[in-house]
Amino acid sequence: MRQLTPTEITSLREFLTMETTGLITLKTSEPLINDELLKQSCRTGIAAAEGRIKAIQQFIQENNIADVQGVQ
Predict the structure, then answer these.
(1) CA distance linking residue 28 with residue 5, whole number of Å
(2) Where are the beta strands (DSSP E) in 1-72?
(3) Most buried pick, 4, 31, 36, 72, via CB within 10 A?
(4) Among 4, 5, 21, 20, which residue's Cα sits nearest to residue 57?
(5) CA nearest 2: which of 70, 60, 67, 72?
(6) Rounded-to-integer distance, Cα 16 and Cα 54, Å
(7) CA 71 remoteness from chain centre
(8) What is the pLDDT of residues 7-59, one digit of tens each?
(9) Cβ density class 8-31: b for 16+ within 10 Å, e for less
(10) Which residues contact residue 57 at a Cβ distance below 8 angstroms, ignoring those fewer than 6 apart?
């Protein structure tokens, strides 16, 4: 278990918020896209964002920073 400074914890929270906001934006925009290449790019971005969010959540859980079970 790693000990994080308050600044690191705040940064981690802000990064998770940023990723979640970006994911919501991508998921909201995807149905509105007509161009198939752009739509595929959006889907790729969604998958990547979901992966980053899961990695951050796993890091938070493994280091007992906060309880994030059920958050997705």
Answers:
(1) 35
(2) none
(3) 4
(4) 20
(5) 60
(6) 10
(7) 11
(8) 999 999 999 999 999 999 999 999 999 999 999 999 999 999 999 999 999 99
(9) eeeebeeebeebbebbeebeeeee
(10) 16, 68, 71
